[in-house]
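Explain this fold:

***
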Amino acid sequence: MNIDTVPVAGRWVPGLKRRELLCAALATFAGVVHAQPSACPWRIAFLSGTAPDANVRRNMVEPFTLGLRELGYVEGQNVRIDYRWSEGRPARLPGLLTELLQLQPDVLVTSGRRSWTRS
C-alpha cells in the first residue's frame, strides 16, 4: 500500500493521493460556500488520527489552510476550523468525531490512516 494512498468511502482507491483528495475537499468546500451565502463564518471540523506535531502541521495543516486562503477563506476571519487529534490512538476517534459533529460543522475533513473510516 502506498503511504500516500487514501481511503474513499471506506475503501482504498489505488492511485488517489492525499494531495488530490485535499484538492477535491477544498473544491467541494468552495462550491458549498459559494452556493450558500452566509453572514456567519463557515465552520470546518478537522479530525486526524495523528498527533499535532510540527511535521503534521507543516505537511498537512499548513497546506490545507493555505489552500483555503487561496480560495478567499481565512481562519479566524470568515472560516473557523475546529481541530481534533487522536494522537495515534484509534479508540479515541469515535468520541472525537461525536464531539466535532455536535459543533454542527459545514464540512468535515478527516486525515489519517484506515482507523478513522471505522468511526
Q: What stands out?
A: The domain at 5-118 is CATH 3.40.50 (Rossmann fold). The chain has one domain: 5-118.
